[in-house]
UniProtKB/TrEMBL annotation:
<feature type="transmembrane region" description="Helical">
    <location>
        <begin position="81"/>
        <end position="100"/>
    </location>
</feature>
<feature type="transmembrane region" description="Helical">
    <location>
        <begin position="55"/>
        <end position="75"/>
    </location>
</feature>
<dbReference type="Pfam" id="PF06170">
    <property type="entry name" value="DUF983"/>
</dbReference>
<dbReference type="InterPro" id="IPR009325">
    <property type="entry name" value="DUF983"/>
</dbReference>
<keyword id="KW-0812">Transmembrane</keyword>
<keyword id="KW-1133">Transmembrane helix</keyword>
<keyword id="KW-0472">Membrane</keyword>
<protein>
    <submittedName>
        <fullName>Uncharacterized protein (DUF983 family)</fullName>
    </submittedName>
</protein>
């Protein structure tokens, strides 16, 4: 890897699913599975562990949006319950699938950039 080349911004690299060190290699091998290492610079992805962070942020964001939309729909249009179920179900599943991979990438890139490790007692 070229030492003079600056590191990419972690949020941008994570959202695109790119390597947090070089910004070119792919971070994911499947939908949510990390590759063993970067194919461009060789960064080892085995130490990346975003834990439940992506799930928490996805649930929070999707929950706020879906509940807000449901309240607005009820006040404005008063639709039958099946419309609420159809809209809320579709949005919940769609937004969750759309957000989980980019958020996992961002948390992994921030973990690498900030050199985050498991906490230890002395």
């Amino acid at each position: 890897m070229d030492v003079s080349r600056p590191k990419p911004p972690p949020i941008s690299a994570g959202l695109r699913g790119r390597c947090p060190r070089c910004g070119e290699g792919h971070m994911f091998d499947g939908f949510l599975t990390f590759r063993p290492s970067c194919e461009v610079c060789g960064l080892d992805y085995e130490s990346f562990n975003s834990g439940d962070g992506p799930a928490f942020f996805v649930m929070s964001i999707v929950g706020i949006l879906v509940v807000g939309l449901a309240l607005w729909m009820e006040i404005t249009y008063e639709p039958p319950i099946w419309v609420h179920a159809l809209v809320a179900g579709s949005l919940s599943i769609g937004l969750s699938l759309a957000l989980v991979r980019p958020l996992k990438g961002v948390l992994a890139a921030l973990q690498f950039t900030n050199k985050a490790e498991q906490g230890r007692f002395r």
